[in-house]
Design goal:
The chain is α+β, with helices and mostly antiparallel strands. Helices cover 50% and strands 6% of the residues. The chain folds into 2 domains: 79 residues, Glutaredoxin; 115 residues, Glutathione S-transferase Yfyf (Class Pi), Chain A, domain 2, CATH 1.20.1050. The chain has a 4-stranded mixed beta sheet with strand order 2-1-3-4, with helices on one face. The relative contact order is 0.16. The site of glutathione has 14 residues, from α3 and α6.
C-alpha cells in the first residue's frame, strides 16, 4: 500500500508517462479522474490540490502534493531507484533529459487542450485547422528528434541503451496521442521503433488511455 493518489485523465499526454513510470517502479496508486473536456481540472475542489488546474498531480501518503509530470517522475526515480529512469553518467543524463524535454517542453505546451481550445474560441479555428496545428508542432520536433536518435550510438532498443527511461516515457505518450490527430509516422522510423519497444512492455501498455477507468 503506497498511499499514493494520482489525479489525472486517461488521454492526458503528461499523465501517460507518469502512469508508466509508476508501473515500471511497481507503485500502485488510487486513480482520480478529472474530465478535461468538461473542465473538471478547473473545479474549485481540484484547484485546492493544484492551483494550476492541470493534471497530473500526485498526492503522497502524508498529503504532500507534487505537480509537473517531469518533476514527479524524477521524484519517483529518486525515491525508488530501481529500475533507474536516468543513466549513471552526468553527460548521459543530460542527453536523456534533453530528449524528454524536447517533447515535454517543445511539443506539449503548444498542443495542450487549452491552446487548441483558444485557437478555436479566439481565432475561429475548426477541427481541421487545429489538427494541422497539432501535426505541425509534432513534426517541428520529431524531425530533429529522429536525427538525434538515429545518429547516436547511445540509442539502443530504447532512447538510451537497452532499458526504458525518462525520454521513452515522453516519446511513448506523444506517439499515443499523435494517433488522434493523424500524424504520419513514416518519416520517423527510429521513433516508431522505440515506441513499439515501449508498447511491448506491460508497464507502458497498462498506462495507455484505453486501459484507464475513465476511458471513453
Ligand atoms: N507541464 C505540465 C503540463 C500539464 C498539463 O498541461 N496537463 C494537461 C493535460 S496533458 C492539462 O491538464 N490540460 C488542461 C487544459 O489544457 O486545460 C506537466 O508536465 O505536468
Amino acid at each position: 500500500m503506497t498511499g499514493l493518489t494520482l489525479h489525472n485523465y486517461f488521454r492526458s499526454s503528461t499523465s501517460i508517462p507518469l502512469r508508466a513510470a509508476l508501473n515500471l517502479k511497481g507503485l500502485g496508486y488510487t486513480y482520480v479522474a478529472h474530465h478535461l473536456r468538461k473542465s473538471e481540472q478547473r473545479a474549485a475542489g481540484y484547484l485546492t490540490v493544484n492551483p494550476q488546474g492541470l493534471v497530473p498531480s500526485l498526492v503522497l501518503a502524508d498529503g504532500t502534493v507534487l505537480t509537473q509530470s517531469l518533476a514527479i517522475i524524477e521524484y519517483i526515480d529518486e525515491t525508488h531507484p530501481e529500475p533507474p529512469l536516468l543513466p549513471a553518467g552526468a553527460v548521459d543524463r543530460a542527453r536523456v533529459r534533453a530528449l524528454a524535454y524536447a517533447i515535454a517542453c517543445e511539443i506539449h505546451p503548444l498542443n495542450n487542450l487549452r491552446v487548441l481550445a483558444r485557437l478555436k474560441s479566439a481565432f475561429g479555428a475548426d477541427e481541421e485547422a487545429t489538427s494541422l496545428w497539432f501535426r505541425h508542432w509534432v513534426d517541428e520536433t520529431f524531425a530533429p528528434l529522429e536525427t538525434l536518435l538515429a545518429g547516436d550510438p547511445r540509442t539502443g532498443r530504447f532512447c538510451h541503451g537497452g532499458s526504458p527511461g525518462l525520454a521513452d516515457l515522453c516519446l511513448y505518450a506523444q506517439v499515443v496521442n499523435n494517433r488522434r490527430f493523424g500524424v504520419d509516422m513514416d518519416p520517423y522510423p527510429t521513433i516508431a521503433r522505440i515506441f513499439q519497444a515501449c508498447a511491448d512492455i506491460p508497464a507502458f501498455a497498462d498506462a495507455a488511455p484505453e486501459r484507464q477507468p475513465d476511458a471513453e
